[in-house]
Amino acid sequence: RIAYVNGRYLDLREASVNIEDRGYQFSDGIYEVCEIRDGALVDWPRHRARLKRSLGEVRIAMPMGEAALTAVLHEVMRRNRVHYGLIYLQVTRGVAHREHSFPSPSVKPSLVVTAKNLSFAKNEAQAAHGIAVITLPENRWPRVDIKSVALLPNVLAKQQAKEQGAYEAWFVDRDGFVTEGSSSNAWIVTKSGTIVTRSADSGILPGITRAVLQEVLAALQMRFEERPFTPQEAEEAAEAFVTAATQIVMPVVKIDGKPIGNGVPGPIAAKLRSHFHGFSTFS
Ligand code: PMP
After folding, report:
1. What is the CATH number of the domain that holds 260?
2. DSSP secondary structure string, 40-64?
3. Is 181 in the same domain as 95?
């Protein structure tokens, strides 16, 4: 496998950044993950816009222009022969002697890009079975709208889910409402057929899959409500699912050990999953 590291394409085994990279020492960086499907980037313009926004919020410069960055992504995809999978890119504030405040403006941000093949069959099998989620108290900082590489609470939550035989952990805020998953946005379908997800105003990363799915819902004229919901409401829902770039619409069939609906993936999640890419852009 080949990675892009600050202007060079390197074998992954030799690809490295300096130990004083601020991403390594402070998690002082931003990342993006984009799905690759049919050899193309899915919804890349939206991911790029979110990258730009996140970087702006923490005052890191975009590492290069739009066209150059897109070209790097395509080159990484090409060199890794990824037809179906994901691309990962991260931008950190660069390399400097350790000191919390920003380094001199002459320090350039570091850009790393990797790509990997995923198993399409495995992903589809998972969607056919559905996943289990657990709930955990929200313990992240309030700026989860920034796609920061500081993911320690997310790492611990995902590990706890795994150790309990689940695939994802949903964070629950102090008012008792689900915010989002450790690496996905959370949705339910009520017994009356309304599709519900929390507003992007607070407590969540504004997911690109979430945004595209809202367009799918509008086009299919499906009932949609943007509001918070509780784990209890999820447990009593007809269906639940999560959204994320490489999972698209992934049915949730169990929450904290209790089945949702019939305990099997529901028709609405399946319908949304099948329509999703008709509303994505490919580049
Ligand atoms: N929330 C969190 C915390 C995430 O890490 C992700 C995945 N990047 C998402 C939501 C879903 O975002 P997207 O649809 O853009 O992948």
Report:
1. 3.20.10.10
2. EEBSHHHHHHHHHHHHHHTT---SS
3. no
